[in-house]
Amino acid sequence: MHADFNDLRRAAEVHRQVRQYARKTIKPGMTMTEIAELIENGTRALVEEDGLTRGIGFPTGLSLNHVAAHYTPNAGDKTVLKETDVMKVDFGVHVNGRIIDSAFTMHFNPRYDNLIAAVQDATNTAVKHAGVDAILGEIGAAVQETMESYELELDGKTYQVKAIRNLSGHSINPYQIHGGKSVPIVKGGDQTRMEEGETFALETFGSTGKGVVHNDVDCSHYAKRVDARHVPLRSAKAKGLLNTINQNFGTLPFCRRYLDRLGEEKYGVAVCLVTLNCLIIVEKFSRCWHCRGLPAIIRRPRVLYCAV
Ligand SMILES: [Co+2]
């Protein structure tokens, strides 16, 4: 238990320093790839990356505007950050598999200030209500009430800020980013409790749209399933890729860029990932998007450790 605390503390300190550097350094005009690499190289250096012992916790999410979560650039992505964008920067650090999952939102236009305030207040509310024995459904209800007490005026139109009902926080297990429990951000009556020794990412998402997201066909995040069975693979390429995944990520999430760095052959990889996904060895995390054209979505998770 004490070792866990020290691992989480070390990962959290790296996260804090990288976050501070990112906030100072990221500017409109940079590409998504430059931003992701700035964060990932900073993390690798500060945590003293070492195989599966210490490193990146999951691919850097750089979700823009109506995209809520799970977007990271693949090779060749030319997207450039604009002055008018709202960008959710979501990155992870792990030490001995203990993952810090935390995010912040960047915006350069004060017209979104109230949306940020709503989500910060909602996240603080979640932190206040969380702890050993806290009922997950009650946290969700409190988050929703706080979030939806805010309004945002854009171009003469007033929007009530809505909590996105199909996104949530989650428990975290060693080397497993989604540990099995969800922390809702709307009311709904889930009576499950937080328990001693568990770790949670409290994530809240506020939106000016309808408060629901859809999965995209686009996908850049993958992870080997914790419950993957041993399946004999006929394709030598798929076998090779699975070896690379086992050695470098275990069950930690990864993205295509991380495979590119390791020198995995570009075109074979896409097909192999489909194969591994079909065999229920690797799972995909699709990009979650919101009603196109509508203004921003913000997230601001924090990690909470249910202390004894
Ligand atoms: Co998370």
Describe this structure in words.
It is a single chain. Strands 1, 2, 4 and 5 form a 4-stranded antiparallel sheet that branches. Strands 3-15-13-14 form a 4-stranded antiparallel sheet. Strands 10-9-11-17 form a 4-stranded antiparallel sheet. It has 7 helices and 17 strands. Helix 3 runs antiparallel to helix 4 and helix 5 crosses helix 7. The radius of gyration is 19 Å and the shape is globular. The protein is α+β, with helices and mostly antiparallel strands and 308 residues long. It has helices spanning 2-25, 32-47, 113-129, 136-147, 236-248, 256-261, 266-278; strands at residues 54-56, 61-64, 67-69, 86-95, 98-107, 151-154, 157-160, 162-163, 168-172, 182-184, 199-202, 205-207, 214-224, 254-255, 282-289, 297-299, 302-305. Bound molecules: cobalt (II) ion. Cobalt (II) ion is lined by residues 101, 170, 201, 203, 301.
